[in-house]
Amino acid sequence: MIAFDFKLMVRLAHRSIFELKDMDSRCKSRRIAMLLINLFFYGLSEMIHWTCFFLDEFFFPDYRQVDVIEPVFIAGLPRSGTTHMHRLMAKDPQFTSFRLWEILLAPSIVQKKFYKAMGVLDRKLGSPISRFIDKFEKAAFKNKFHEIGLFKPEEDDPILLHIFSSFFLVFMFPFDEDVRRFSRFDLEIPAAERARIMKFYKQCVQRHLYVFGKDKRFLSKNPAFSPKIRSIGETFPDAKVIYMARNPLQAVASGMSFRSFLLDHLYFPLSPEAIQSLILQNALFFYTHPLEILSAWQENRHAFVNYDSLIADSEKTVLDVYHRFGLNVSTPYRRALSLDKIRSFAYRSRHCYAPEDFGISRDTIISLFKQVFDKFGFDMNSGENLNSESLGPDQDNDSGDFVSNESCRM
User: Fold this and answer.
1) pLDDT per residue over 271-292, tens digit each?
2) SS (H, E, C) the chain
3) Is the pLDDT of residue 253 over 90?
4) Among 279, 297, 308, which residue's Cα sits nearest to residue 73?
5) Domains, the chain
6) Radius of gyration over alpha carbons of the chain, in Å?
7) How far apart are CA 29 and CA 46, in angstroms?
8) Of 39-43, 121-125, 193-197, 362-366, which range is least confident?
């Protein structure tokens, strides 16, 4: 059975092109042109990907027998330290994660093996392709919000774009109910559809392990998996989840900046207030839903990690998580953590945001997220954390920058 949601793609394309009067978007002609161009190249690339998926079934059918044993998922609101926690743990050789090149260019086994072979050939020729990619990344992926690289561990929810079922569709179609339901995945996506999506995702993980190490433990970071926590537990019964928690006065403002930037460049919204309301609603669910689900899990299967604790001492935070999950800590990895802790104090965040920057009062944030403030003991005045009982150490604002414990005070 093909997992691709053709009906949704056609429906959204039709609405965006032919139902202009109902679209809350300026630059409608520009949006339509961009949508048509994207759909053309998207369709072309997906034909290649799905041809390779079918070849996988012919040449490597045993990938389905690969066991995904105790995978670790890092969730949380965007801009809450998920990227830094992910990249700290990805340094441990017992883990393996999707890299951006896999997600975009090589979701199938056939493609992974092809690009791996190209990498071997490139190194034998003196790495001309690698040098070109490095220069390209410095020019094209320079980004004030999030450090991106084709060979860096990256959040993998976009791999679901290969079946047109990713949360990331919300940035192109934010007000369409068919897409907004992805932001409340566990509650609003029908069971059969959830099963289809999660089955495809699991098969992508199995394909990854088939090529990069059947004996390794899969590590994934996805803020977009916050509304999928229940489905993650159903798909991977022995999964372990790390939930990153950051003071809403900081996280919501920072996330508002990031998501507003994306929406403004993809959707061209006419009503910024409506976008803000949507982001606040999603943020609240991204906090409360994981708290509700994970609190019922066994202690050795979930950990709430405080962002401020991560900033203060990354080494201790990661080691606390490892101890809670019963993970082995090798001597080389422990040294890597110690080195990262030393480096962290030499950097400061370049990006500080406050709710007022986006026309949202602190009282609104405090009232809306009262449950979160009560749970984690976040300071309602300064934005700093008063209670660091959650697991955790070092630093990250999900922008790729390291930050000191004194930076971004509100």
Assistant:
1) 656 667 777 888 899 999 999 9
2) CCCCCHHHHHHHHHHHHHCHHHCCECCHHHHHHHHHHHHHHHHHHHHHHHHHHHHHHHHCHHHHHCCCCCCEEEEECCCCCHHHHHHHHHCCCCEECCEHHHHHHCCCHHHHHHHHHHHHHHHHCCCHHHHHHHHHHHHHCCCCCCCCCCCCECCCHHHHHHHCCCHHHHHCCCCCHHHHHHHHHHHHCCHHHHHHHHHHHHHHHHHHHHHHCCCCEEEEECHHHHHHHHHHHHHCCCCEEEEEECCHHHHHHHHHHHHHHHHHHHCCECCHHHHHHHHHHHHHHHHHHHHHHHCCCCHHHEEEEEHHHHHHCHHHHHHHHHHHHCCCCCHHHHHHHHHHHHHHCCCCCCCCCCHHHHCCCHHHHHHHCHHHHHHHCECCCCCCECCCCCECCCCCCCCCCCCCCCCCCC
3) no
4) 297
5) 6-376 (3.40.50.300)
6) 21
7) 25
8) 362-366
Q: CB within 8 A of 202, min separation 6: which ones?
A: 68, 235, 236
Length of the chain: 410
Query: What whole-number distance in Å separates Cα of residue 12 and Cα of residue 43?
Result: 14
74 within 8 A of 321, measured Cβ to Cβ: no
Asked if residues 195 and 201 have their Cβ atoms less than 8 Å apart, the reply is: no
Instruction: For residue 95, give both structure tokens.
Output: 């883990």
Query: What does the block give as tokens for 330?
Result: 């090798």
When pLDDT is cut at 50, 70 and 90, the band that residue 39 belongs to is confident
pLDDT reported for residue 177: 80
Distance CA 133, CA 198 (A): 32
